[in-house]
Amino acid sequence: MNKIGFNVLAWSAVVSDELKPIIERLGATGYDGVEFLIGAPDEKAYKQIGDYTATLGLETTAVFVLGADYNPIDPSATVRAQALEKIKWTIDRAYDLQAKVICGPFHSAFTTFSKCAPTEQEYMWSAEVLRQAGDHAAQAGILLTPEAVNRFECYLCNTMDQLAYLIDKTAHPNVKAMFDTHHANIEEKKLGAAITRIAPVLGHVHISENDRGTPGSGHVPWDETFSTLASINYQGWLTIEGFTRNDPDFANAIGVWREFSQPWDMAENGLKLIREMCKKHGLV
Fold this sequence. Notes:
Blueprint: E1 3-7, H1 20-29, E2 33-37, H2 43-55, E3 59-63, H3 77-97, E4 101-104, H4 120-140, E5 143-146, H5 160-170, E6 177-180, H6 181-187, H7 191-198, E7 202-207, H8 222-231, E8 237-240, H9 248-253, H10 263-281
Parallel strand pairs: 1-2, 1-8, 2-3, 3-4, 4-5, 6-7, 7-8
Helix pairs in contact: 2-3, 3-4, 4-5, 5-7, 7-8, 8-10
Keywords: Isomerase
InterPro entries: Sugar_Epim/Isomerase, Xyl_isomerase-like_sf, Xyl_isomerase-like_TIM-brl
Pfam families: AP_endonuc_2
């Protein structure tokens, strides 16, 4: 059974009490769960928000990224060890949130480039870190779902072919793959073919428009996307991820320089799109 979630990054990258009215309204709107960024160091905040979200009958998922000092594919063994510890810390915070899924491009450091194409050694380093992180995630009952993102944000995994290769090398039951329609819109030839390629290890899906605005307002081929998800019998989360400039520090960090849509337009009309597509293509 597919559950529908919304990522609160449209409002804030910081987990705090300020998100409570937003979480409550997302529940009232009809969402099954809420996705949070794990990044801020206030450890207590994650458990408090996780407990609050659960009292509303909502589930949680989590997303995070790694910086250059925590790069799983850095030539330095010390940096790679720091990356593993950072991922473990994130798993612990996700456990506090009561999240069962962590997604994001944590196979390598965000916007950190070697000025070369990915190497076999880098895939091996990433797989080694992810495999050890998978052991920690298994103890917490959490699934790790690394994400392929566009060429402007990473170079190790831009496509489902590259991500499938990495997941195969990792070979851990708690490490699957994530598919994001925004990034696929940039990097893949056909979204349906990309979904089919990653289907055996697909663990999480982000529903995101080509410009990061309201799903259904742009040119992502939603019929192709949902019909393919139905054909592979995908049963995981369908989580909307859209960005705004509501949190300037976060927006500046990811290059969001204008408003694509207002958060509640994304949430309300995005949910309507997902429900219509699920019904049309038999995805339940």
